[in-house]
Amino acid sequence: MRKLLLSTLMFSAGGIVYAADANVASNAAESSEYSAFQKFDRQYSLGYAVTSGNLTNGSSGAVNNTQYVNLEIERLFNVGVWMDVNANLLTYYSQNADPATPAVGTTTGSQPSFGGINAKVGYAFSLLPDHLLITPYAYLGRNTNLSSYTLSEAGSQTNLTQDYYWSFGAGARLEYRINNVFDVYLDQNGIYNASQAPVTQGFAPNDYYSYTSTLGAKFNVHRNLQLGAQAFYNNYYFTQSLVTANGVALVPQSSVGGLVSIGLTY
Fold first, then answer.
1. Are 45 and 26 in a shared domain?
2. Any idea of the CA torsion for 28, 32, 34, 36, to the nearest 10 degrees?
3. Residue 15 contacts by C-beta under 8 Å, 6 or more apart in sequence?
């Protein structure tokens, strides 16, 4: 009987400690200077995007169109650390064949990256409590690099495990919370993409810089349901011309696009 009573008391005490700890954590989240933004920036979502881009080889140009899906996980911590991870995969590509890579045709065209995973990690600074936040961040990613150029010049060594970019850079995001339902942000970054594709025969690697401007919005429509929308513009600068035996390969010069998403806050 005493053992039963002692066990009951110990169980009850443990339950009280757990409840107290959970309550402290909850109160800490509510009292955080970031709590108003956490209602938007603690979310995971699935998105669908379309883009239209211009290509150039220095003397002539072309146009490509893409569609892709995107999985995003984002979290703003109580201490102000912000993390945003995106994984994307190209599902559609349209472009005329590149004359510089006739053997490949339109297999992947001149899109240097058609899938990858990218992370942003930064620290948020409150400029106007509960309404305005600025977050400088570092950027790191790994993106597949299979374009017509790398397929043509890498020969038998071409495969998904070897042909990729390391992408790294920095950026900043300015976020304005209108109220508990609407939140908008402006994001700008600069990224260097270092090709790891095993190009042979002395051909140049297709390393490039990308600069992306994004205007986005989030809508907390009902309980934990969140809708999102983005419009973005990309500029690309390749470090050298991609010369092949048949001419200079087409490379992306700029693109515009949009993304819509649906997700849950947590």
1. no
2. 80
3. none
